[in-house]
Amino acid sequence: MVLQQRSQLKSAESMPGSFGGSKGETAELFAGEEIFYRQRFQRHGSVFKSRIFGKKFAFLVGPEANRLVLKDKADHLSAGQGWIFLKPIFGTGLLLQDGKQHKATRKLMHPAMHGQALNNYFATIEEIAADFLAEKATGQTFSAIDTFTEFSLTVALRLILGVEAAEFGEALKYFLTMLVGRRARLHLDLPFTLYGRSQGARRKLKAFLQKKINLRRKHGDLGESKDFLGLFLASVTEDGDSLSDTEIIDQLLMVLFAGHENPAALISWLLLELDANPEWKKRLQVEQAEVVGDKPLELTDLKQMTSLGYALKEVERLYPPVQNMSRGVLKDIEYDGYRIPAGWMVDVSPLLTHRLPELYAEPDRFDPDRFAPPREEDKQHPFALVGFGSGPHVCLGYQFAQMEMKIFMSLLLRNYDWKITPKKSKIAPVYEPSKVQDELKVNLTA
Asked: What does the pLDDT read at residue 3?
């Protein structure tokens, strides 16, 4: 019976879509980015094929596809193959790990991102946010994404790498230079190439971190540290072994990469939406007055900011931090009547899922109340909202990011005002967030 059912499955080769010419559709993907996916989804439906960088891809759209790839068949798939383009820069960090290795690393990293560790980070994040807003509220106009990346990167360098004020400029320079290597098409490690400059900065940043590791070990008291570096140094495996310095550095760089981008983008989009929806801006200000008032902000206040939580969920839905998630197929999987064989890649799209009208009413509209009882549209399906992933590879730093964004927004809403250009009415609906976010300009005033 099983053999009969398998024989009735259609070959993935017969999916709608195209493998393109001799070079596949790689050029079309890079030219269109989010529009590439949207156009093919509109043309072919929720299952279609393509060929990118010589690899055959099955693109699957919708909550059931998310469930299959992110949870049910996660052990048949490789996240490491999906994120392979990051390996030359970030080594073998968590995003590039699979199976037992991934599970063991997550277990080691978990204490650094939950529980008492979050309590320890609260005061530092608030201090950074307060100083940052006071410095930027000059009435001048800045790039929104660059400005808020500066904030989130300051938080990340302090709390992930344990960078002190005197070291900040050095670490920042190395990290930003290393990061541009993602755009390099030619992986030639020479000083005059983009990739070579990135690799040179990576070596300098690794040496910088090695010095910090040596100093921390020399001074001891690792368990009392209030940053990821100290907690990683204090961690041991189930066998009682410490992490190697190389493993620690790779994990720190990967967490730094993931931890600085997502909050910056979501804050930028939230300010755009609140500027375009003044009734929601007022509602959040009233909530801040009720929850915090004139007293100092406390960690327990964050859980009471329910309307702010809905608004953050809504920008996660409309502008997910990761628009698409790819996996390499290690063992054959089945979806919607197709057999997708080992050697292929599968790709699911939070961006497209989050705009499905069968899940979300008026999906292009900013409407945070869709997450409030009794509507709770995201609970129609457990994989309807996956901006931070789901399943065994769900974002380990989700709670950290939520705390960081709530602290920042609380200080902003209580003490500052802002304007964002261009107005949302000029750019809506936004189907290409990664391109449009670079155009956003912010003006902060006290």
From this structure: 44
For 108-158, write each residue's pLDDT tens digit: 888 888 888 889 899 999 999 999 999 999 999 999 999 999 999 999 999
Which of 86 and 346 is assigned the larger pLDDT? 346
| 394-422 average pLDDT score | 96
What is the 3 state secondary structure string of the chain? CHHHHHHHCEEHHHCCECCCECCECHHHHHHHCHHHHHHHHHHHCCEEEEEECCEEEEEECCHHHHHHHHHHCHHHEEHHHHCHHHHHHHCCCHHHCCHHHHHHHHHHHHHHHCCHHHHHHHHHHHHHHHHHHHHHCCCCEEEHHHHHHHHHHHHHHHHCCCCCHHHHHHHHHHHHHHHHHHHCCCCCCCCCCHHHHHHHHHHHHHHHHHHHHHHHHHHCCHHHCCCHHHHHHHCECCCCCECCHHHHHHHHHHHHHHHHHHHHHHHHHHHHHHHHCHHHHHHHHHHHHHHCCCCCCCHHHHHHCHHHHHHHHHHHHHCCCCCCEEEEECCCEEECCEEECCCCEEEECHHHHCCCCCCCCCCCCCCHHHHCCCCCHHHHCCCCCCCCCCHHHCCCCHHHHHHHHHHHHHHHHHHCEEEEECCHHHHCCCCCHHHHHHHCEEEEEC
Burial of 167 (0-12, 13-18, 19+ CB in 10 A): middle
Cβ neighbours around 398 below 10 Å, total:
16
Task: Enter the tokens of residue 313.
Answer: 């969920």
pLDDT computed for residue 222 by the predictor: 59
Under 8 Å between Cβ of 394 and 330 = no
Query: How remote is the C-alpha of 349 from its chain's centroid?
Result: 13
- Residue 279 · residue 297 · CB < 8 Å: no
**Considering the chain, what percentage of its residues have pLDDT values greater than 90?**
70
Residue 86 in contact with residue 77, Cβ under 8 Å? no
Would you say residue 168 has pLDDT above 60? yes
Structure tokens at 30: 């890079």
Residue for token pair 């974002």: 395
Give the chain's length. Answer: 446
Distance CA 391, CA 93 (A): 18
Question: What would the two tokens of residue 248 be?
Answer: 């620690």
Report d(CA 23, CA 180) in Å as an integer.
Answer: 25
pTM of the model as a whole: 0.93
- Domains of the chain in start order, with CATH, are 2-445 (1.10.630.10)
Tokens of 378: 């995201």
